[in-house]
């Protein structure tokens, strides 16, 4: 039995996963994107992004006839009861969210309306944006509709699990009809559905990401102090995390956050605050700490090797985190650019993200390798920038034989003291005094 008819506009990390999961729950879903190449791939059963489990789930739903892909937004909207907006809202150069994609999609939706629709925004948008969408659609359509803000909280790498088992669903709308329809749509996922006004829902998304980013920058600063005072940040974080008021997640010290959400959403919230004459000092510091944290890798390399000019540095991990091919705002960009600036050669490897990364950063002194071993062979030092499981499974003894010099900068604390015992590594990790 078909539950609801959905059109999902924007078939990226959020739209594709949401569309696939909703179709798995028995809804009839049309995923729309204006990128014809992406849609063509999906129609052929290929998946344009790397996300564990996604390909299998797409096949299951397309085989069952509940999921299809198209560039024809108008037809998809006409056939739908609920239209989900999941287009990108990337940063403008000044840090504000670029709303041109969502406004464009809203205009197209307005032109296609043929009766009452609920239009639910999953894209992360500044407070007040849904009201702007509403007036824009009203200007271009005489049909009735209801707007809702339904922010998305999934994490790349575990996107299907997160979508199917969310901690909460937030539905912000002034419309009773939208509230009922969207509650019914999300009820199979969780009972924890928070109904709010539109502006609060929009703010919940930014406040949540800003808070998580704050936890990361906080533990990174604690790690930096730990290195100086002789404490071990992993034990400190463990001891803090047992306190239920604090919680253990997002307390892993490392080289800082990256990705398509935290950097842009923190910058956007600083701008949102600025527009109402509020100086969000705490969040500005969070961003600054994060920007600097990645350069600890360079500082530690220089401590070991001195001048980096003429050295060969192996880089393991280009994605901003494991289990994704997303390289947006990955710390590896600035680290590698800084190595190039210092005259080093780079041999880089990532299990799935190298192609995406390479299309943004090419240089005669960077070679992209096909295996972890190839990248490490003959290098003066190895830097681990992403904690892919694949790297953790490689014995340190093997890595030592591949490198020209046994120098290891572990930006994600993936190796233990026991594993290092008996090796000759000069080893630096993050916030662990015996290993920093
Ligand atoms: P994405 O860049 O992967 O996908 C966006 C898609 O929208 C692209 O495929 C693009 O071609 C398409 N698009 C843009 N304009 C269009 C239009 N007018 N018509 C049809 N298609 C159009 O972005 P994403 O990572 O999926 O993020 C989408 C939104 O969700 C953003 O606002 C983001 O902040 C938010 N979000 C992302 C994540 C995440 O982990 N990626 C998590 C939570 C929220």
UniProtKB/TrEMBL annotation:
Molecular function terms from GO: UDP-glucose 6-dehydrogenase activity
Q: What is this protein called?
A: UDP-glucose 6-dehydrogenase
Q: What is its EC number?
A: 1.1.1.22
Pathway, per record: Nucleotide-sugar biosynthesis; UDP-alpha-D-glucuronate biosynthesis; UDP-alpha-D-glucuronate from UDP-alpha-D-glucose: step 1/1
Gene name of this polypeptide: tuaD_3
Which SUPFAM superfamilies has this protein been placed in? Answer: 6-phosphogluconate dehydrogenase C-terminal domain-like, NAD(P)-binding Rossmann-fold domains, UDP-glucose/GDP-mannose dehydrogenase C-terminal domain
User: What is catalysed by this protein?
Assistant: UDP-alpha-D-glucose + 2 NAD(+) + H2O = UDP-alpha-D-glucuronate + 2 NADH + 3 H(+)
> In which family does this protein belong, per the annotation?
Belongs to the UDP-glucose/GDP-mannose dehydrogenase family.
Q: Where would I find the UDP-glucose/GDP-mannose dehydrogenase C-terminal domain in this sequence?
A: 314-417
Keywords, comma-separated and alphabetical: NAD, Oxidoreductase
Asked if NAD is a keyword of the record, the answer is: yes
């Amino acid at each position: 039995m078909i539950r609801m008819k959905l059109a999902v506009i924007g078939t990226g990390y959020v739209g594709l996963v949401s569309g696939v999961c909703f179709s798995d729950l028995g809804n009839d879903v049309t995923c729309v994107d204006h990128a014809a190449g992406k849609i063509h791939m999906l129609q052929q059963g290929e998946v344009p992004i790397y996300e564990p489990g996604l390909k299998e789930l797409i096949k299951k739903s397309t085989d069952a006839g509940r999921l299809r892909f198209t560039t024809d937004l108008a037809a998809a909207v006409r056939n739908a009861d609920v239209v989900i907006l999941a287009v990108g809202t990337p940063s403008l150069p000044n840090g504000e969210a670029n709303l041109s994609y969502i406004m464009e999609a809203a205009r197209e939706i307005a032109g296609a309306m043929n009766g009452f629709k609920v239009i639910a925004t999953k894209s992360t948008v500044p407070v007040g944006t849904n009201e702007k969408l509403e007036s824009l659609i009203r200007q271009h359509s005489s049909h009735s509709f209801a707007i809702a803000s339904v922010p998305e909280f999934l994490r790349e790498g575990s996107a299907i699990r997160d979508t199917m088992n969310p901690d909460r669903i937030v539905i912000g709308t002034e419309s009773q009809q939208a509230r009922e329809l969207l509650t019914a749509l999300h009820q199979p996922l969780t009972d924890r559905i928070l109904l709010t006004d539109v502006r609060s829902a929009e703010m919940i998304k930014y406040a949540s990401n800003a808070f998580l980013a704050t936890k990361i920058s906080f533990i990174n600063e604690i790690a930096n102090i730990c290195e100086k005072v002789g404490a071990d940040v992993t034990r400190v974080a463990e001891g803090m995390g047992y306190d239920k008021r604090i919680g253990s997640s997002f307390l892993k010290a490392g080289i800082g956050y990256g990705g398509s959400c935290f950097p842009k959403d923190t910058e956007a919230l600083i701008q949102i605050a600025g527009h109402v004459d509020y100086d969000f000092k705490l969040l500005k510091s969070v961003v600054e700490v994060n920007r600097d944290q990645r350069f600890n890798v360079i500082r530690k390399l220089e401590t070991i090797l001195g001048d980096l000019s003429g050295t060969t540095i192996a880089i393991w991990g280009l994605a901003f985190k494991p289990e994704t091919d997303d390289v947006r705002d990955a710390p590896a960009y600035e680290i590698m650019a800084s190595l190039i600036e210092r005259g080093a050669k780079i041999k880089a490897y990532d299990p799935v993200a190298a192609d995406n990364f390479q299309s943004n950063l090419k240089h005669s002194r960077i070679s992209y390798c096909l295996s972890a071993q190839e990248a490490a062979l003959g290098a003066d030092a190895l830097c681990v920038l992403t904690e892919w499981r694949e790297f953790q499974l490689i014995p340190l003894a093997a890595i030592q034989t591949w490198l020209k010099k046994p120098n290891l900068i572990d930006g994600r604390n993936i190796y233990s003291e026991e594993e290092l015992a008996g090796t000759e590594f000069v080893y630096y990790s993050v916030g662990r005094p015996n290993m920093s």
